[in-house]
Task: structure prediction
Amino acid sequence: MDDELSIEECTLLLILARQSLEQAVNGKPIEPLDVDELPSRLKEQGATFVTLTRGGSLRGCIGTLEPYLPLAEDVREHTIAAALRDYRFPPVKPEELIEVKIEISRLTLPQELDYSSTEDLLNQLHPDIDGVILRDGSQRATFLPQVWSKISRKEIFMEHLCQKMGAPTDLWRLKKLQVFTYQVQEFHE
Result:
């Protein structure tokens, strides 16, 4: 990622995420964000995924692939959603907060891959660097680059991504899907 945030900007986003997490989980109103007080890059539109873990296990992950909010607001919105609205998990409880860790992934804009065959597609994927989006009509799914650490073989990565999309695991071999890649700047507590 060419335009990485500074350590200070990352720290501020993590503080904002923690504050919104604690307020939301404790049922308190979310304090309005004074955008004028933010560094300029945190006012710019940005796309993030916020991942919550507890004891090293996934506890929630919500985000967006394309920017539509100022970066600081995007982080706050997705932190709250990951804690309370990830359908895979019950809402985070106040007593869990001490154990929940926050990871923020700031995304680049997705770029569509032009590929001629499944072999060509696999050759264009860069494990540990590329996040991947699969799209088949209105269905789509993504894996952040961090998923490569758990699924390092490209073929299996693509199969799991098809499955996440709700499609047969071999769909990527049977028809040409739209495939996009993006990169992230990842930082965590």
